[in-house]
Amino acid sequence: MKNETPVLQDLHGRHHGYLRISLIERCNLRCSYCMPEEGVPLSPKSHLMTNEEIYQIAKTFVKHGVTKIRLTGGEPLVRKDIPVILEKLATLPVELSITSNAVIIDKFIDVLKVNGVNKINISLDSLDRGKFKHITRRDQFDIVYKNMLLLVEEGFKVKVNVVLMKGFNENEIIDFINLTKELPVVIRFIEFMPFDGNKWDMGKMVSYAEVMTYVNATFSEESIQRLQDAPNDTSKNYKISGYKGSFAVISSVTNPFCDSCNRLRLTANGQLKNCLFSSSESDILTTLRSGKPIEPVIQKAVQAKFKVRGGMDTLEKLQEPKLHSNNRSMITIGG
Ligand code: SAM
Ligand code: SF4
């Protein structure tokens, strides 16, 4: 990439060309693995990035070699000025994409298309209406399922994120894969990860190996195809021969993919996180508002990035509650 500069290069030889921006801390669902039932303390509005600040910060990242921007949340589509944000970011030379729970995405089809967003990741953890309501604490299964079909019909490239939890939805792994027989979507099974307030423990997680045990017990060896993963891909990709879609596993817990990590995360209140698992943050927004250049802050944050999972390089460390509970709840990071 010709505009790559040392600003986004860490001490482990990784260039960071992918920025995930969280637009909002609020959400219209309440997924239990993502946020505590009582909610999270919200930043005052004046502490959140305005659409112009998002654009200015994104522009600086692009100048130093970011080529992909993904918008996330909370629920990004709940933010009132989302059309303006999309319009501004669409003027940058980046691949723009979004992660949404799809509850209201049917209202945004045109605005997404006009601004060149064609890759959409949605979240759907169960194909059972009652279970969906239980995990999200809201009764929105029908609309989410309908919107998934609508997105496919409208020609978007759709990935469906499924956070797997023991005794809750692991018995749906094969149902989800069967959905790919006729539907050209990528089902992405995600290992349940620890964040503040989500009552994580290793026993609740369904591992990559366990997913493959279900797959191997159901489909013949010849029909299970291991696909080539894209560069910097966080997932291990598979397909059942003849099926229109495919499936993947994101194994951040049992098989971290930190060697090829190219991601940085900007929270809705303008803090840069150099790793999903790291509790340290760098205040980009205050620096921007003070009129100082943000590059030195970005560079320092990138250079402080640990080689593996925010320093939790072993499963033992990941299981240490005091290490992961200093981190934010996922709802204020954005995935
Ligand atoms: N509201 C949008 C959505 O649900 O797609 C975007 C934000 S959400 C935080 C982004 C992704 O993070 C979702 O796919 C969600 O499933 C995933 N996620 C949240 N908490 C998680 C956890 N504890 N472990 C693994 N994935 C998690
Ligand atoms: Fe909201 Fe997404 Fe978190 Fe669910 S996973 S509570 S939809 S931000």
Task: Spell out the key features of this protein.
alpha/beta; binds S-adenosylmethionine; TIM Barrel; binds iron/sulfur cluster; 12 strands; twelve-stranded mixed β-sheet; 11 helices; 27% helix; 335 residues
Describe this entry's structure for a reader.
The protein has 335 residues and is α/β, with parallel strands linked by helices. The protein has one domain: TIM Barrel (Alpha-Beta Barrel). The chain is 27% helix and 17% strand. It is built from eleven helices and twelve strands. The chain has helices at residues 51-63, 82-89, 109-114, 129-136, 141-153, 173-179, 208-218, 284-289, 295-303, 315-318, 321-324, and strands at residues 18-22, 68-72, 95-100, 119-123, 157-164, 186-191, 224-226, 235-240, 246-250, 263-266, 271-273, 282-283. It has a twelve-stranded mixed sheet with strand order 7-8-9-6-5-4-3-2-1-10-11-12. Helix 1 (51-63) runs parallel beside helix 2 (82-89). The relative contact order is 0.16. The mean pLDDT is 93. The structure holds S-adenosylmethionine and iron/sulfur cluster. Residues 27, 29-31, 34-35, 73-75, 101, 123, 330-331 line the site of iron/sulfur cluster.
